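Summary for the steering committee. The consortium agreed at its last meeting that each partner would contribute one worked example illustrating the joint modelling workflow. Our contribution is presented below. We chose a case with several input lines so that the handling of multiple components could be demonstrated. No manual editing was applied between input and output; the record is shown as generated.
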Amino acid sequence: MKIAKTGNEAMAEAMRQINPDVVAAYPITPATEIVMIFSQFVADGLVDTEYVAVESEHSAMSACIGASAAGARVMTSTSSQGLALMYEMLYIAAGLRLPIIIAEVNRALSSPINIHGDHSDTMGARDSGWIQLFSENSQEAYDNMLQAVRIAEKAKLPVMVTTDGFIISHCMEVIDMLTDSDVKKFVGEYNPERFLLDVKNPYTLGAIDLQDYYFEHKMQEAEAMKNSGKIILDVAADFNKSFGREYGFFEKYKLDDAEIAIVCMGSTAGTAKVVVDELRAKGIKAGLLKPRVFRPFPYKEISDELSHLKAVAVLDRSDTFSAYGGPLFTEITSALFITRYSLPVTNYIYGLGGRDINTDALKKVFEDLLKNAASKKIENPINYIGVRE
Amino acid sequence: MSDIIEIRWHGRGGQGAKTAALLFAEAALATGKYVQGFPEYGPERMGAPVQSFNRLSDKPITLHCGITEPDFVVVLDPTLIKTVDVISGLSENGAIIINTEKSAAEMKKELNFKGRVFVINASKIAKECFGRAIPNTPMMGALVKVTNFLEINGVMDDTRKKLEKKFSRKPEIIEGNIKSIKMAYDEVSGE
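What follows is the complete predicted structure of the assembly.
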């Protein structure tokens, strides 16, 4: 059914349809509406969820971990400082292999204080062992939430589904919502292999693990993340078969015959599609690759798709402060190197603190790419766009 | 004008500029269009100048940047004209619709705008139709007329459905709002 929803409403509706056993959350802008709307669903009796109102995000994730270990299907939502406050517990959720879902609304980190959308918060959690799915718009946020449940429970890994703060979270758009019964059927029942409330089969979870076995357990976690790639694709294939919407590791937009391309994640990819169309109308072979799955990073698949290009620009909505480019740039250049492809790749850091990025700014990136493709050289590998000097 | 129509709403915090943009988006969807509706991103304060936005198209909309060169501007509060540059980025092919008791000719002169200027006394219509000077629903009617992109009956039907949920115990508010949309649609005038 086609319906107008904001990104936050779409994620809250997905949570209602998933009907998790436990939600523990603490509100934070711009994700507040997700838990606000969901708590109303709880109050109205539209879900069977036990809603735990906690006093901080650290406690929210701690409660999620407890509930998930007990055998419940568990979700929460947060943003920015809230995700940062969960940091310690994120690693524990992943290490204990608990399939918790976060609806995460990307927002800048303090300081300076800012409530708007960039990817700094999510990127701070990129090595915590969580699967990370980025969404371009409300539709993808909704669809990713539904798929995340299946992915998490099969991979035994937690998943965060992200949207861009305000740009998507507060933008009303047309989405195609599935029926409650279709969602129920798609996500299925959660039957954990083992769980702490199964008193007939007691086991120890979270015990100390020193030089003797810690490394083996971490190795297993790394293997699980590696193996989750196939699970993500399988779930996407089933979603497509059931509902006719295609998902994978990434979306290619006019990329196959492109000579130059932008790589970017989240809402900016939508704006970039308009620019690609405009350039194509002028006969310029422009394209776009939009990663959906940032963790696990599909390094080989992305390299293969970029290898035929004459020049690539990677756009990052966060900085690493490494003086060596943003996180997506370093992943992609590293991926191209180890898969033995050599092409000019440049980085553009943009949109920090929600700074608007319009079609003119993206056209300028494509103009630079045309120059790099002709000269086969890179003048400035790391660039900052849309910022005053 | 491209195949996407872009609209900017000007109001004051608490006047319903955000609600108007979101209601308008939902009504546009109900008539079969693709839409976006979003507020100016920032902490809102009662009485402070605020903006909200719409995009409308026959095709899915993927643009996710701000709107700086709108095709249409709607001004809910005429006192904003003295403090906010309401015609900023508005093309001379575009149009502005103002809630005011003044004439279009007067407003055209005051704004020094070469494009089309429309006026409607939406606050008066709102007061007459449902007893409160909240201009956002009648302004939707004026906007439907001026943009000439949506079907007015579809907009009224959808708005009635939305209001029926919100004001189930106050049917007079619902009918008053619907009447105000039609009245503003019929009475908006410009040059």
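Strands of chain B lie at 4-12, 34-39, 49-57, 72-75, 95-99, 116-120, 189-190. Chain B has six helices and seven strands.
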